[in-house]
Each structure stands twice: as structure tokens, then as C-alpha cells.
Amino acid sequence: MNLLIFSSILLWIVVIIQIGVIFALARQIGILFERVSPVGAMISDSGPALGDKVPALVLPDLNGSGLTLGAGHKGRSQLVFFLSTSCPICKALLPALKSIRADEAGWLDVVLASDGREALHRRLIETEALQDFPYVLSSELGMSFRVSKLPFAVLIDQHGKVRAKGLVNSREQLESLFAASETGIPSYQAAVAGLNS
Fold first, then answer.
1. Mean pLDDT of the chain
2. C-alpha span between 122 and 136 (Å, rounded)
3. Contact call for residues 77 and 95 (beta carbons, < 8 A)
4. Distance, C-alpha 39 to centroid of its chain
5. Does residue 197 have a pLDDT over 60?
6. ω before 151 within 30° of 0 (cis)?
7. Of these four, 14, 47, 85, 156, which has the most CB atoms within 10 Å of its CB?
8. What is the pLDDT of residues 3-29, one digit of tens each?
9. Contact, 153 vs 165, CB < 8 A?
């Protein structure tokens, strides 16, 4: 009888250790997925194609009097970043956008875009100190670019043409839009596919 009790206790200890090991492995896999995120923005085939001219759009700006997007803009490139007030990845990328805006101020304007209730966006502007960014609230803009997942970014050149676009989850993916614009290769995935063919 004592042997049966001892073996039962020993088996429970082994099960508890296995649960701990499985939890630790699952955590490590999660960390690995964060570190090995896809390189480059994930291109979307919907919406305006690369090279298409964006018609001049005059949109209301929550931080100013108005904003011209696309062909009618003042000869500077624009990075349009689509975000949501409830998107944690969008909020995590805001410091990167502030840095990009400062680093690329000579040629690039960073525009934040969303839709929804204005009060929620005003609260986000206040809590994240986004007063210096043009902030467009327009569901039509998201529909014209066919934005279905967030965060999404579109790089429009100084002539109003779409140079790069895609789903972005990290600073590296944001910066890949600039590399795509400079090289003419739309994404890392397209470059790899070109090497393999």
C-alpha cells in the first residue's frame, strides 16, 4: 500500500514538472515569433496598385485646418499610417513614427489616418502627444486604399504616386517601405521570389 501511495505522489510530481516545461517552451516559442517577424511590409493586392496616382484629396485634419493628400500635396512625399485607438500594435509603433518623422523631415510628411468616433481619437492625440501630426479621420480614405487590417501604411511620393504599401507590425517593416520605394522592389517577399525564379 505504501508503494502505491509513493508511486502516485511521484507520478503527480512528474506531471507538474511536465506542465512547467510545456509552459516554458510555449513562452519561448512566443518570444521566438516576436523576434523572427516577417521582414518587410506585407503587401496587399487590394486598393491602388504601386505606381498609381492618388487623386488629390482634401481631408479634415483633427490637428489643423485641413490636409491635401496625394497629387495635390506640396511636392513632398507622404507616409499615411492607418491606425485604430484600440490597436495595441498601432500604439506600439507611434514612437517609431515620431522618430521617422524627425529623421526624414526634409522630404517626408507622416500622416495618421483612421475612422470612428472623434472623441476617442482626440483622447489618443492627447495621451500619446500626437498634436504635431496631421491626423485625418475619414472612412472614405480607408475604403479608397482598401485597408482591411491594421496597422497599414502607404508611402506616396512627391508626385502623388503610390510607391509602397502594406501591413506593418514593426519599425523594420515601416522602414522597408522606404527601401521598396528606393529599389523599386515592392517587398522582401517579391525579392526572394525573384531570386528563386
1. 86
2. 11
3. no
4. 13
5. no
6. yes
7. 156
8. 889 899 999 999 999 999 999 999 998
9. yes
Average pLDDT value for residue range 124-152? 92
Cβ neighbors of 75 (< 8 A, separation 6 or more) are 158
Amino acid at 20: G
Percent of the chain, pLDDT > 70? 85
Nearest to 51 by CA among 152, 180, 148, 150: 180
CA–CA separation, 163 vs 133, rounded Å? Answer: 21
H/E/C letters for each residue in the chain?
A: CHHHHHHHHHHHHHHHHHHHHHHHHHHHHHHHHHHCCCCCCECCCCCCCCCCECCCEEECECCCCCEEEHHHCCCCEEEEEECCCCCHHHHHHHHHHHHHHHHCCCCEEEEEEECCCHHHHHHHHHHHCCCCCCEEECHHHHHHCCCCCCCEEEEECCCCEEEEEEECCCHHHHHHHHHHHHHCCCCHHHHHHHHHC
- Looking up cell 525579392 gives 191
**Rounded-to-integer distance, Cα 79 and Cα 100, Å:** 10
Amino acid type, 5 = I
Cell output for 57: 484629396
| Residue 166 Cα distances to 57, 60, 75, 179, 187, angstroms | 20, 24, 23, 13, 9
Overall average pLDDT of the 113-125 stretch: 94
- pTM for the complete prediction? 0.75
> CATH class for domain 57-187?
alpha beta
Distance between CA atoms of 72 and 55, rounded to whole angstroms?
A: 8
